[in-house]
Amino acid sequence: FDNQDGGIPHNVAVYNSPARAEEIFVGEIITGPAEITYTFTAPEEPGTYYFQCDVHPSMNGDFIVE
Ligand SMILES: [Cu+2]
Q1: 8 C-alpha to ligand 1 centroid (Å)
Q2: How would residue 9 be classed by pLDDT, with cut points 50, 70 and 90?
Q3: Hey, what's the torsion of the CAs at 8, 15, 25, 39, to 10 degrees?
Q4: Which pLDDT score, from 0 to 100, does residue 37 have?
Q5: Do 46 and 66 form a contact (C-beta atoms < 8 A)?
Q6: What span, in angstroms and rounded, lies between the C-alpha atoms of 40 and 1?
Q7: Ligand 1 centre from 61 Cα, in Å?
Q8: How far is the centre of ligand 1, averaged over its atoms, from the C-alpha of 18 (Å)?
Q9: Phi and psi (nearest 5°) for 17?
Q10: Which pLDDT score, from 0 to 100, does residue 59 have?
């Protein structure tokens, strides 16, 4: 994860859905400019999951398992 946003903290966190009832992976928040390597196991079940920056939840998207 490459946070190129100087002075701004971000992370990547994956949840089961936008309601975030279940955490799949919550990456450490880092303040840019900085990089971190995240290692996690994707769900076994194919489907469309959800990711966001926990600091800025408007930064989000689909996490697709095929
Ligand atoms: Cu952010």
Answers
A1: 7
A2: very high
A3: -90
A4: 98
A5: yes
A6: 13
A7: 13
A8: 16
A9: -160, 175
A10: 98
Please provide the size of the chain in residues. 66
Gap from CA of 41 to ligand 1 centroid (Å) = 22
The residue type at 12: V
Task: Name the domain count of the chain.
Answer: 1
What is the 34 CA–ligand 1 centroid distance (Å)? 13
Q: What is the dihedral of CA 27, 32, 49, 66, to 10 degrees?
A: -90
pLDDT for 31 equals: 98
pLDDT per position as a tens digit, 12-62: 999 999 999 999 999 999 999 999 999 999 999 999 999 999 999 999 999
Helix (H, G, I), strand (E, B) or coil at 43: coil
Which range of residues forms the domain containing residue 55?
A: 2-65
Q: What is the pLDDT of residue 64?
A: 98
